[in-house]
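User: Watch each token:
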Amino acid sequence: MIATRLLAWYRAHRRDLPWRNTRDPYAIWVSEAMLQQTRVDTVIPYWHRFLQAFPTVADLAAAPLDDVLKLWEGLGYYSRARNLRLAAQKVVAEFDGRLPDTVPLLKTLPGIGPYMAGAVASIAFQKPEPLLDGNVERVLTRLYAIGEPVSDPNTKRKLWQLAAELVPQQAPGDFNQGLMELGATICIPKAPGCVTCPLSEACAAHASGTPERYPLKPKKAAVPHHHIAVAVVTHQDKWLLVRRPETGLLGGLWEFPGGQLAAGEPPVDGVSLRLRERFALAVTPVRPLTPVNHLFSHRRVTLHPFLCSAASGTVSPRYHSEFRWVSAETVNALALPRAHRKIAAALEQAGG
């Protein structure tokens, strides 16, 4: 009954999203990678541009990392882009350029975990495999009135088991998309639309009268706030950019050099000290630029940029993988984190 009602509702009310109009497993895989922790309306233009630049797995596998990251710029969670490229290279090398169609084989690819493996297997290959994301967790915890914290491993196993029991042999891709669509549009965190929900008659949380009680999540810890000194260093009409290592936060992206300030450390003092410590470069702060605030999923940062001059172009990065002295025009061609892109844009607008 649940599958029948959900499929009928999904086919009548699903949003017209571009990746739902293709059967290309590669295009579906790219959409799933982009949709992780990112809003649908944000993803759509990125998905179109990415597939236009890299229309096949082989194209992505052969692409320079800088080109991939540039197309991903602003989408965030850049490990997704790096893993897509690495996985494409493995697909070309080990699977003759064809994305594998089973969950165990999909999970051997970089960046593909249980959720994405289930999504690609069911949506692209019509395999009756379950999936579990935040929207599906919310639907299932309400449907069965599961009051244990969803972060608990036992609860997570129970939800995966329920998802596996519910997914039908016929149209598993539509069913899984229906679960996610229901969670995204009807069974939302606050004020869910129970009166229009196709599963309300079977929903234990709806029957209890308190659907918003589910899912049970622990209180979020306070988000730390870090202050970063950033140097926009000029030397012979060039700007200094440094590249982050490929692993870790914002891996592979280019940025203006700098480093985290100690508690209470004045930014004007910290910027010179960080450049000596981290890049063996002596700089003179010329003037402060407008601070930039940015929120990550796990922390807040405030960047304190300074226009600086350097007497020498010699740089010895301690933590970054490489450096370049570039023109303002070249900066626009490289992939920068969003906060650093704001600094570059403001400097360019001011004729910096």
Remarks:
- The longest strand covers residues 225-235.
- The beta strands are 225-235, 238-243, 254-255, 258-260, 283-288, 292-295, 300-310, 322-326.
- The two ends are 64 Å apart (CA to CA).
